[in-house]
Amino acid sequence: MNTSSSNCPYSIKLLAFGFGAGYSPVAPGTMGTLVAVPLYLLLEPLPLFAYLGVVFAISILGIFICGMASEGMGVHDHPGIVWDEIAGYLVTMIAAPTGWPWVVAGFVLFRFFDILKPWPIGMIDKQVDGGLGIMLDDILAGIASLILLQIAAKFIL
Question: Does the pLDDT value for residue 26 go beyond 60?
């Protein structure tokens, strides 16, 4: 696996690798999701419309960032590319209740769906190529997690 290709601009790789989290030798996806937590905490106070706009922008940018990194490195969906985990976690946390229990619950739910990739997430992961494919399975994992988190919030709050 080629991880040091010079065909990928440093700035793109820095973003794709979650500011270095993707270099973790153990569970780079989990480390990438951890990077998303402080980013979420910074975005949480925004009005819902603004939060959705930021998440949309991060997701659309991710298609290009992940695609360029993957192509430049010559490896489709390299494990170190974690921008998709960052976007997926932010999707999970759309309109989440405030407080650390919800931050942790969203983290656990997102990692569950991202790792196990139940249908249709796994099918999308295998069938869609490029930056869109890298991003789409994590966005779907985020949507599944978002739904469960919102259901839990309705019953608990």
Answer: yes
